[in-house]
Amino acid sequence: MDAHKITVSKTAHYFTLGKPGPHVRQIWIVCHGYAQVADDFLQDFKLLDDGTRLVIAPEGMNHFYQKGFDGKVVANWMTRRNREDEIIDYAYFLQTLYNQYVVQCPTDVRIVLLGFSQGTATVCRWILRHLPHFHDLLLWAGLPPEDLDYAAHQQYLSEKNLYLLYGSHDPFLTPDHLSAVDEIEKKNNVDFGERSFEGGHEILPDTLLDFIKRMN
After folding, report:
1. Helix H or strand E encompassing 118
2. pTM of the entire structure?
């Protein structure tokens, strides 16, 4: 049996809060986690919708029924099957979306990239593949992938603000997982600025507001 592949066009979906234009001071691109959908995920960011921010929530292109063969449909960014092809596809999707909106906003607009849970790896793989201009990278309740060469992009990353936020009661981020971040940082001479908050595997409004105050 021989395996083959071809590249085809695929329709990707995303949701927004706010409109692009000269009034926009910040663009946020927020990537959801495993078994979520972008419109639900975007509800966590409604407090950003103040007329000065544009929030863009892309949706993973793989969909499945959350329970069995019916019911709620959710998405993920990739699985281990044909992973390299899926990374290429979603990175191209995110870069295309980025290119479409950044040019519609002022040249000095602040660009914030946020990944939640599985979305943290998604954002990291995208930026190190396409190297988009941005100011802040927030990894929330997820870890940077161990297999990326951050050291090779040290100058690119050193010019950005990097953050890693996780809940003190997050069942998915054990001490062993967090120690892996230390190893990544030492190996690549990079600092993700780990910081915990009181909570679990979730985005909390108060924590999000605290982060916004820190970045201003």
Report:
1. helix 118-130
2. 0.96
Task: Report how far apart, in Å, the C-alpha atoms of 78 and of each of 11, 16, 23, 49 are.
Answer: 16, 22, 35, 29
Written as one letter, the residue type at 7 is T
Distance CA 216, CA 211 (A): 9
DSSP string, 134-149: -SEEEEESS---TTS-
Q: For residues 25 and 108, what is the distance between their CA atoms, to the nearest angstrom?
A: 8
Of residues 41, 78, 81, 43, the one with CA closest to residue 63: 78
Per-residue pLDDT of the chain (216 residues; tens, 9 = 90+): 999 999 999 999 999 999 999 999 999 999 999 999 999 999 999 999 999 999 999 999 999 999 888 889 999 999 999 999 999 999 999 999 999 999 999 999 999 999 999 999 999 999 999 999 999 999 999 999 999 999 999 999 999 999 999 999 999 998 888 899 999 999 999 999 999 999 999 999 999 999 999 886
Q: Which domains does the chain have, with CATH numbers?
A: 14-215 (3.40.50.1820)
Count Cα neighbours of 165 within 13 Å in the Cβ-side half-sphere.
23
Q: Which residues are within 8 A (CB) of 8 and not within 5 positions of it... i.e. 6 or more apart?
A: none
